[in-house]
Write a structure and sequence with these properties.
- By secondary structure, the chain is of the alpha+beta class.
- Among the domains are: 106 residues, Alpha-Beta Plaits; 73 residues, Calcium-transporting ATPase, cytoplasmic transduction domain A (Distorted Sandwich); 123 residues, Rossmann fold, CATH 3.40.50; 103 residues, Calcium-transporting ATPase, cytoplasmic domain N (3-Layer(aba) Sandwich).
- The strands form 5 sheets. It has a 7-stranded mixed sheet, with helices on both faces.
- Helix 6 runs parallel beside helix 9.
- It is flat, with a radius of gyration of 33 Å.
- The chain starts with a helix and ends in a 28-residue tail after the last helix.
Length: 761
């Protein structure tokens, strides 16, 4: 039995389930080639060997309209070229499923592929020229003289010219664009060096000198391009967080039409209130509410949680989650550009472009590079010319100085680390909104928590009163529906419907509750001290648990007991932060007994209760004025001012929209240990940034004097320059290594090696 047979047996069962992309989505995702010809790329995970390739290609070629099919075993993808109407593609997926190789649509990532292809072609041309010129140079250096040696030099010049024009254009175009804009970049000195090296060799040939250096010029281009190609590949590897989020968006979805028919619409045409059918194996295209069907959803790529979540009528779903088991109908509540997934993509892109302090220093240093290095190269040229009188050697030294002192390593030191840190956090369910926040998180000196919705789930369970009057139940439900506070949500969910109770005027008082006017009466639902007054609350309300009360004109009508539970990992996080030396505190609007119970369980001494939003803000400002750099973690509308005032802030994905907007980080997981992971990542990123900056500075401090002293040829300078950039990127990539996982909550050895100090080595 071959590997193919074993996989075919499994995959036929999968194909029988009917899970395959719709024909309209295949057409929409295909690349037009002209004259009704299209190219579709599919991913085939079951490919394992050469026999698989033959079977898949034969099955695809047997389909009407398919003119070519090419399978790539290394990527497990097949490119299918077909001719026909765009809305009637060949039965690619059913054909593959029928032979045991189920497939899914795969993105092309054309922009990256085109750039990589361009670099590979340029490397190939430069490498071909350099190798052949070196062979000719061996003959010239072995004693050939007269017309034979001059002929070798002319052939070398003919081979070097295409390398300079075709392969070198990558540097020349960039340099010319910068110069036209009145600025310089790293490609300006490189271009100057390449032209001078080639021109110097041409001059030697015109003077029938015994030696020409076309081999050095072409090898210089070759090694510069090798370094740039490796740099691009490594940078693309670091940027997979945004692309992974973007790939969660389907090309479109099936929508129920006005007459009940099913039509396929591209993603950008799906509008709020449309009924979208999501079949098993497909992703939800936009945010919405499940109206029909029961299923399980996999949101692991967004939240980092591996377990599936059940869903049914009334369940809120987010764009990008994968429907695993049953057919559901989702009523869209957002468009593709306003969905939760689109917001996360935007946040990730903003995070990668943020400007921490270290990045600003590096960029200022890089901006000084061109004038300083051009001046230094000129001084080297003049100095060597005065000392030796040999303008040939002096020019070679100047070229070496221009090339070896590339600012790439310095320019990459911070942003590459920032991008990889954002990717690492994303993989663990944490979205970083601002690159500068990563640096602030590493510098945080204390941690302040909100209680409800942060330390706890904020999903209160209402302990129903023994005898709740229908009148109280009706007005409580009517008031609660005007607030998103967890306590109000629990009351609205648990008590009877409001029976159409008419409210003349309703207002939510942030941090207090909901107030409504009915005729001449004022009803309040919320904090006891606000609803019925401090004295009456102390006298009549049991504060042994979290409570909300309903009042009429300041008189108690009903008291509601609410129960909540801690998020998983909360105790472990608090213990770890204490070991790391962080002072911990709780600021909550809940009553003192409920807050003290949580504080006691977490061993947090500084816990404040019954705080209004302005009082939370004042606590954070006071700590800031005392020199503390506060990490504030909260979720509610009442936490937004404190989140904004804190040195750095975090909020769960379940937070109110204003809270998510104010926070620097948003975490998707229910487990609070991801906060420890975020702090660990921030501190390791800070260490790597310092290492990268140190390497870049040491490299230039060592190499520049050596080049000025004349101990470096242009070729060696090119290799050293490329190596410096690759070394910086490789060091930053350590941050994404699984071997850098923090060993949970061990004591630290140094300030820069938290949550896993044994890994510092």
């Amino acid at each position: 039995m071959t590997c193919c047979a074993s996989f075919a047996t499994h995959d036929r069962r999968a194909s029988d389930s009917g899970i395959e992309p719709p024909g309209e989505e295949v057409a929409w995702a295909s690349q037009p080639l002209g004259e009704d010809t299209y190219r579709t790329v599919v991913s085939i995970p079951a490919l394992r060997c050469g026999a698989c390739i033959v079977a898949v290609e034969q099955a695809l070629m047997a389909q009407p309209g398919v003119s070519a099919a090419r399978v790539n075993l290394s990527t497990r993808r097949a490119a299918v070229i077909w001719t026909g109407q765009q809305d009637q593609p060949p039965a690619i997926f059913s054909a593959l499923a029928s032979i045991g190789y189920p497939a899914t649509l795969a993105s092309e990532e054309r922009g990256r592929d085109e750039e990589v292809t361009k670099l590979f072609k340029a490397v190939a041309v430069a490498g071909f020229s350099a190798m052949n010129i070196m062979l000719l140079s061996v003959s010239a250096w072995s004693g050939a003289d007269g017309d034979v040696r001059q002929g070798f030099h002319l052939v070398s010049a003919a081979l070097a010219l295409p390398a300079l024009i075709y392969s070198g254009r990558i540097f020349f175009i960039s340099a010319w664009s910068a110069l036209r804009a009145g600025r310089t970049n790293m490609d300006v000195p490189i271009s100057v060096g390449l032209v001078l090296a080639f021109g110097l060799s041409l001059y030697d040939v015109s003077q029938e000198a015994p030696h020409a250096y076309f081999d050095a010029a072409t090898s210089l281009i070759f090694f510069l391009l090798i370094g740039r190609t490796l740099e691009l590949l490594m940078r693309e590897r670091s940027r997979s967080a945004v692309s992974a989020l973007s790939r969660l968006e389907p090309a479109g979805g099936h929508v129920v039409g006005a007459n009940g028919e099913t039509i396929y619409l591209p993603l950008h045409e799906i509008k709020p209130a449309m009924q979208v059918i999501v079949n098993p194996g497909h992703r939800v295209p936009v945010d919405g509410i499940v109206r029909d069907g029961v299923s399980e959803l996999d949101a692991s790529l967004i939240t980092g949680e591996s377990r599936w979540s059940p869903c049914g009528p009334g369940t809120l779903v987010q764009a990008g989650v994968l429907n695993q088991s049953g057919r559901i109908v989702v009523e869209a509540t957002a468009t593709a550009t306003t969905s939760f997934l689109a917001q996360m993509v935007n946040l990730m892109q903003a995070a990668e472009q943020g400007g921490p302090q270290y990045r600003g220093i590096a960029e200022r240093a890089a901006r000084l590079y061109s004038p300083v290095i051009h001046t230094l190269a000129l001084f080297a040229l003049v100095g060597w010319l005065q000392q030796t009188g040999d303008w040939h050697q002096s020019l070679s030294v100047a070229i070496s100085v221009l090339i070896i002192t590339c600012p790439c390593a310095l320019g990459l030191a911070v942003p590459i680390t920032q991008v990889i840190a954002a990717r690492r956090l994303f993989q663990r369910g944490i979205i970083m909104k601002d690159g500068a926040a990563l640096e602030r998180l590493a510098e945080a000196s204390s941690v302040t928590f909100d209680k409800t919705g942060t330390l706890t789930f904020g999903q209160y369970q209402l302990v129903m009163p023994k005898a709740l009057m229908r009148y109280s139940a009706s007005i409580s439900s009517a008031l609660a529906k005007h607030s998103r506070h967890p306590a109000a949500v629990a009351i609205a969910r648990s008590v009877s419907p409001d029976d159409g109770f008419a409210l003349d005027h309703v207002e939510e008082i942030v941090g207090c509750g909901v107030e409504a006017v009915v005729g001449t009466d004022i009803y309040r639902l919320g904090r006891p001290a606000w609803a019925i007054g401090e004295e009456q609350a102390v006298a009549t309300v049991d504060e042994s648990a979290s409570r909300a009360v309903l009042s009429k004109n300041g008189t108690l009508l009903e008291s509601f007991e609410l129960k909540d539970q801690l998020r998983p990992g909360t105790v472990q996080l608090a213990a770890a932060l204490r070991k790391e030396g962080y002072p911990l505190s709780i600021v909550s609007g809940d009553n003192a007994n409920a807050v003290s119970a949580i504080a006691s369980k977490l061993q947090i001494q500084d816990a404040s209760a019954n705080l209004l939003p302005v009082e939370k803000l004042e606590r954070v400002r006071r700590a800031r004025d005392n020199g503390e750099k506060v990490l504030m973690i909260g979720d509610g509308l009442n936490d937004a001012p404190a989140l904004a005032a804190a040195y750095v802030s975090m909020a769960p994905a379940t937070a109110a929209e204003v809270g998510r907007k104010q926070a620097d980080f948003v975490f998707m997981s229910d487990d609070l240990r991801v906060i420890g992971e975020a702090i660990f990542t921030a501190k390791w990123a800070r260490r790597i940034v310092r290492q990268n900056l140190g390497m870049a500075i040491i490299y230039n401090a060592v190499c520049v004097p050596i080049a000025v002293a004349g101990f470096v040829t242009p070729l060696v300078a090119a290799i050293a320059m490329s190596f410096s950039s690759i070394a910086v990127i490789a060091n930053a990539l350590r941050l994404s290594s699984d071997r850098m996982q923090p060993l949970p909550f061990q004591p630290k050895e140094s300030d820069d090696a938290p949550f896993g100090n044994s890994l510092a080595a």
